[in-house]
Amino acid sequence: MARDQIDAIVGEWRVQLPDIVGPSMELGKRVHRLAGRLQEAVRNETAALGLSPAEFDVLSALRRAGPPYALKPSELASGLLLTSGGISNVLRRLQQDGLIERAADTADARVAWVRLSAAGLATAEKVVRAVTGAQARLFSAADPALVTAAADRLRELLIALGDTAKED
């Protein structure tokens, strides 16, 4: 069987501290390595379109919400694991670029909405297609059945760790 870079790292640890080596170490290191490769692909595509990964995340979340492509800032922050300060900075930049609009709720003035502008909708779709294309290219060297099986097994693992979807 072919060896990857993680096999070499684990082999070194097996010599130095054999008691720390096990499946959880190998999985953690491989997931970390794969996440790095995916993040690199996202950074390359978003940078080419003049966006940061955080700006991509916000545009993507708004587009995924469906018409009218609007969410509350608190929903964006919690869904994207950003602080209120972090989401405020991202929203300010997107608004300055004309990609989002902010509006007060007509029923409750305490509630604000963030909504994709027409330019934001077009940009969101462009960047989502670019990023998913980069991800597809990254995985193109692997058998599609292997990619599907890996995704299914990782879902099972995440659920076992308590990372379940909220029921609607």
Structure characterization notes:
The chain is mainly alpha-helical and 168 residues long. It has a single domain, classed as Orthogonal Bundle (Arc Repressor Mutant, subunit A), CATH 1.10.10.10. The protein contains seven helices and three strands, in the order H-H-H-E-H-H-E-E-H-H. Strands 1-3-2 form a three-stranded antiparallel beta sheet. The protein is elongated and about 65 Å long. The N and C termini lie far apart (44 Å). One of its GO terms (biological process) is response to stress.
Looking at the structure, what is the overall shape? elongated
Note the run of SSEs as H and E.
Answer: HHHEHHEEHH
Strand line-up in the sheet with most strands: 1-3-2
Find the CATH superfamily. Answer: Winged helix-like DNA-binding domain superfamily/Winged helix DNA-binding domain
Give the mean pLDDT.
93
Quick one: CATH class? Answer: Mainly Alpha
CATH architecture, by name, is Orthogonal Bundle
**CATH topology tier name:** Arc Repressor Mutant, subunit A
Please identify the structural class as seen in this structure: mainly alpha
**Given the structure, what is the number of helices?**
7
Helical percentage? 55-70%
**Contiguous uncertain segments of 5+ residues:** none
Number of extended strands = 3
State Rg. Answer: 20 Å
Instruction: State the major sheet.
Output: 3 strands, antiparallel
